[in-house]
Amino acid sequence: MIIVRTLQELAGARATLGDVGFVPTMGALHAGHLTLVAAAKQAGLTPVASIFVNPTQFGPKEDLSRYPRDEAGDIAKLEAAGCALVWLPSVEEMYPSGCATTIHVSGPSQHWEGMQRPGHFNGVATVVAKLFGQIRPQAAFFGEKDWQQIQVVRRMVEDLHLPVKIVPVATVREADGLALSSRNTYLSLAERMTAPKLHAALSHAVQYLLAGKEPATTLHNVRLELATAGMVPDYVALVHAETLEPIATLQPPARLIAAAKLGHVRLLDNLPVG
Ligand SMILES: Nc1ncnc2c1ncn2[C@@H]1O[C@H](COP(=O)(O)OP(=O)(O)OP(=O)(O)O)[C@@H](O)[C@H]1O
Ligand SMILES: CC(C)(CO)[C@@H](O)C(=O)[O-]
Ligand code: BAL
């Protein structure tokens, strides 16, 4: 596996790779990330990953300084997964002084995560656009765990006519339903036991919705279920799967999305409805 840390090294190596399937990450890799690499391979593309803890997508009170980092472990996992190249830029390489461009995607970024984390999607869109410009991938693979992120990136790619196919990959879960996430390492043992209740509550709600139960009542019941488990919901919503607009009646394409705090840890999950 080729390891590159500067744009100059990247340009040289990129020329040797052919059609690339790109997996952008913030590191602390788990089986969810490796599934994205496997999906790139399966699509017949050369898998390339990036590891960059992007400061511009963290709010001032968020966990940038303590975000989990394990560069050596990550490199070993990517190599074992058959990744051809890993791009490890520094903050200075990614945001050189004088850098003055930010991408703001309106539409799907306006609700939910966008409201809870002001500026977050500007940071995501800007760094993803930069990464696409640097790597020039044919396709890029994103996890459905971050459903809204996929829709924001899709919107950006369409609006800017970027020649990249965005491929969503199903959420990888623990046996008890908890979506794998780098931030799960923040959970205490007791919190880890409770955390799967987010997925459980969403799964129950999907069943109720498909059985014809009223969405408003169903969403209320999810909030109750989370509160009973000791979680504080940031939002629980039934949305149009692409625009992320809330919907009051069940109609395709619908997605049930939620974020909840468990102690100091913020959990995210979502499921298709129908
Ligand atoms: N459980 C999962 N299944 C599939 N893809 C995932 C999973 N978790 C993360 N990903 C995807 O991996 C890519 C990189 O995500 P990132 O490095 O932020 O990991 P993360 O586990 O989502 O971290 P965080 O805890 O910060 O949310 C994103 O496209 C994300 O959606
Ligand atoms: C897409 C991404 C790598 C951009 O920093 C990040 O938001 C993530 O890991 O999901
Ligand atoms: N996987 C989402 C990246 C973030 O929370 O900043």
Short description:
The protein is of the alpha/beta class and 274 residues long. The protein has helices spanning 7-14, 31-42, 71-80, 91-94, 113-116, 120-135, 147-159, 189-194, 197-210, 215-228; strands at 2-4, 20-25, 46-51, 85-87, 139-143, 165-169, 232-240, 254-262, 265-273.
Describe this structure in words.
- 37% of the residues lie in helices and 20% in strands.
- With 274 residues, the protein is α/β, with parallel strands linked by helices.
- The protein has two domains: 2-169, 3-Layer(aba) Sandwich (Rossmann fold), CATH 3.40.50.620; 182-273, Pantoate-beta-alanine ligase, C-terminal domain (Pantoate--beta-alanine Ligase, Chain: A,domain 2, 2-Layer Sandwich), CATH 3.30.1300.10.
- It has a six-stranded parallel beta sheet with strand order 1-4-3-2-5-6, sandwiched between helices. A three-stranded antiparallel beta sheet has the order 7-8-9, covered by helices on one side.
- Helix 6 crosses helix 7.
- The longest helix has 16 residues, at 120-135.
- It binds adenosine-5'-triphosphate, pantoate and beta-alanine.
- Adenosine-5'-triphosphate binds next to helix 2 and strand 5.
